[in-house]
Design goal:
The chain is an alpha/beta fold. The protein is built from 17 helices and five strands. It has a five-stranded mixed beta sheet with strand order 3-2-1-4-5. A hairpin with a 4-residue loop joins strand 2 and strand 3.
Length: about 500
C-alpha cells in the first residue's frame, strides 16, 4: 500500500508540474503579447509625441502668421509710410472731417478761427486796381441819372474773346523780307494761348484734349486748337524751362540744406520715379527710371552738392552730400506701429521724447535763439539712448517672432542712425522732418491720378521741367501766367533765393 501511495504522490506531482508548465507557457505567451502591445503603444506614443511637436511648431508659425497679418491689416497712413488714400473703407475710422489723413480731430469749431484775417477784396482795393490801369474800367447805370446822386458797387469779371493780330512784315531796302522765327508759319498761336495751355497742363492737371476743348469753348469755338498743338506748346515750354532749371540747380548748390524725396509714376505702363530737391525758394523735379544708385549717379546736382540732405532713410542717398538728416515723422509712424504690434512702452516714450525735443527747438527759434547748449544736447542724446536700451530689454520678451524681429530691426536702425535722427538738435537749419519734399510731390500724385502717367520718357522729363519752373515761381511770389508768358517771349526776371535761406 505504501508503494501505491508514493506512486500516487508522484503522479500527482507530475500532474501539478505539468499544469505549472502549461500555466507558465501561457504566462510567457501572455507576457510576450503584452510586451508586443507595450512596444506598439510606445511606438504610437513616440509617433504622437513627434506629431504633437510638429503641431506645436506649426501652431507657433500660425500664431506668428496671424500676428503678421493683423499687423498688416492695421497698417495705415498714421503708423506707416502708406498714403492716406490707403485708409479708405476702413470701418474703424470715424466718419468725420479729415477721416482719411493722419490729422486728429481738435476741439476747435469748424470754419475760420477767431483772429484769422479773412481774404476778400475791399472797395479801396478795387479802386486802386482801376487807378493802376491794370484792369479795364466800365460804367453801368441803373435808375434815373437825372438826380445826380448814386451809390457805387463794383463787379469784377473776365472778358474772354479770341483776338486775331494781323502782322504785316515789309520788305527791306534790298527787297527781302526779314521774317522773325515766331512768324515762320502763315498762322500761329500767340503767347497767351500757349501760356494758358501750359498752366492748365501743370496747375490744372488737365489732359491735352480737355485743355483744347476748354480753350476752344472759352474762345467761342473760334480758336481751332488741337490736342497736338497743346502738346507742342508744352514741349516748347519744357525745353525753355529746362534751361532755367539748370540755372536754378546752380543756385541750389549754394544752399546748406536740401530736402529730397521720390514718388512713383507710370511711363508706358512701367513704374518709374520723380525725385525732387526742395528748399524755401526753389523746388526742382527730376525724372528717374528707378531709385537705385546708378540712376542717382546720373543726376549732376547730386554729385555736385556738398551740403546736407534730409530724406526718408534712403541709404543710396548717403553716397551724396556731406551730412544727412533722417525724417523723424517717418520714424514716429514706425514707433507707433511698434507699440500697436508689441504693446511695449519704449516706442511710446521715444515718440514723446522726439516731439518734446522738436517743441523745445521751435520755442527757441521763436525767441531767435538758434542753438541748444552742449549740455542740453548731451541730455537729449542720453535720453534717446536710454530709451533704446529699455527697448532692447523689452524686445527679449516680445511674444510673436514677427513683431520681435521687426522691433529689433527698428531698434538697430535708430541706434545705427542716431546721429542722423538727432541732427536737427545740432543744427537748427536742418528740419525735424522731410514734409517739405512730401508736400511738393503731391502735385505729381495728382497728375498720376488724373492722367495715369506718361506715354514716353520725353513726356516724363518735360513734365518735370515745367513743374520745376512753375513751382519755383510760386515759391517766389511771381504770377504764374506772367512767368510763363515771359519765358515764351524772353528769359524771366526772377529774384534768386538768398544764400542759406531757412527751410
Amino acid at each position: 500500500m505504501g508503494g501505491n501511495y508514493e506512486r500516487g504522490i508522484y503522479n500527482h506531482l507530475m500532474d501539478v508540474m505539468s499544469r505549472l508548465e502549461k500555466v507558465e507557457a501561457e504566462l510567457q505567451q501572455e507576457k510576450r503579447a503584452h510586451k508586443e502591445e507595450v512596444l506598439c503603444l510606445r511606438g504610437k506614443i513616440a509617433k504622437l509625441e513627434e506629431e504633437n511637436q510638429k503641431l506645436r511648431v506649426e501652431n507657433e508659425l500660425l500664431r506668428n502668421e496671424i500676428a503678421r497679418l493683423k499687423s498688416i491689416i492695421n497698417n495705415d497712413s498714421t503708423n506707416t509710410s502708406l498714403p492716406p488714400s490707403s485708409d479708405r473703407n476702413k470701418p474703424k475710422k470715424p466718419r468725420a472731417a479729415n477721416t482719411f489723413n493722419s490729422r486728429e480731430k481738435g476741439k476747435r469749431k469748424a470754419g475760420g478761427q477767431k483772429g484769422h484775417k479773412g481774404v476778400c477784396l475791399s472797395r479801396s482795393d478795387v479802386e486802386e486796381k482801376i487807378r493802376s490801369g491794370k484792369c479795364c474800367h466800365e460804367i453801368k447805370t441803373i435808375g434815373d441819372t437825372g438826380s445826380g446822386r448814386y451809390k457805387v458797387k463794383y463787379v469784377i469779371d473776365l472778358d474772354v474773346e479770341p483776338v486775331i493780330t494781323e502782322v504785316r512784315i515789309y520788305a527791306n531796302e534790298s527787297g527781302k523780307y526779314e521774317i522773325p522765327k515766331e512768324y515762320a508759319n502763315d498762322v500761329s498761336y500767340g503767347a497767351k494761348v500757349k501760356a494758358l495751355c501750359v498752366c492748365l497742363y501743370s496747375e490744372g492737371v488737365m489732359s491735352n484734349d480737355r485743355i483744347a476743348s476748354f480753350l476752344n469753348g472759352a474762345g467761342k469755338g473760334e480758336l481751332g486748337l488741337s490736342e497736338g498743338s497743346v502738346y507742342n506748346f508744352c514741349r516748347c515750354f519744357g525745353k525753355k524751362a529746362e534751361v532755367e532749371v539748370e540755372k536754378l540747380e546752380e543756385e541750389q548748390l549754394n544752399q546748406e540744406v536740401v530736402c529730397s524725396d521720390a514718388t512713383t509714376v507710370k511711363v508706358n505702363g512701367e513704374q518709374c520715379y520723380i525725385r525732387n530737391f526742395s528748399t524755401a525758394m526753389t523746388v526742382i523735379y527730376r525724372a528717374m527710371r528707378n531709385k537705385g544708385l546708378d540712376a542717382l549717379n546720373r543726376l549732376e546736382f547730386l554729385k555736385r552738392f556738398s551740403g546736407t540732405f534730409v530724406h526718408d532713410h534712403e541709404t543710396a542717398m548717403y553716397h551724396f552730400g556731406t551730412r544727412h538728416g533722417e525724417c523723424n515723422v517717418h520714424i514716429i509712424r514706425y514707433l507707433k506701429k511698434n507699440t500697436e504690434d508689441t504693446g511695449n512702452e519704449w516706442s511710446s516714450k521715444m515718440i514723446s521724447a522726439l516731439c518734446e525735443m522738436n517743441d523745445k527747438r521751435k520755442e527757441y527759434m521763436r525767441g531767435n535763439q538758434m542753438e541748444f547748449s552742449d549740455e542740453q544736447i548731451r541730455e537729449y542724446e542720453q535720453r534717446y539712448h536710454e530709451i533704446l536700451s529699455e527697448g532692447r530689454e523689452q524686445n527679449k520678451n516680445t511674444r510673436h517672432e514677427y513683431a520681435r524681429q521687426d522691433e529689433k530691426a527698428l531698434l538697430n536702425r535708430m541706434e545705427n542712425y542716431s546721429e542722423n535722427h538727432l541732427l536737427f538738435l545740432h543744427d537748427f537749419k536742418v528740419p525735424f522732418d522731410n514734409n517739405m519734399s512730401e508736400r511738393d510731390l503731391r502735385k505729381v500724385k495728382n497728375r498720376q491720378k488724373m492722367a495715369g502717367g506718361f506715354r514716353k520718357d520725353s513726356g516724363h522729363e518735360m513734365y518735370c521741367a515745367i513743374l520745376s519752373f512753375i513751382e519755383t515761381m510760386k515759391r517766389r511770389g511771381i504770377d504764374i501766367i506772367d512767368a510763363i508768358l515771359g519765358l515764351f517771349v524772353s528769359p524771366p526776371s526772377y529774384s534768386p533765393s538768398p544764400l542759406g535761406a531757412e527751410l
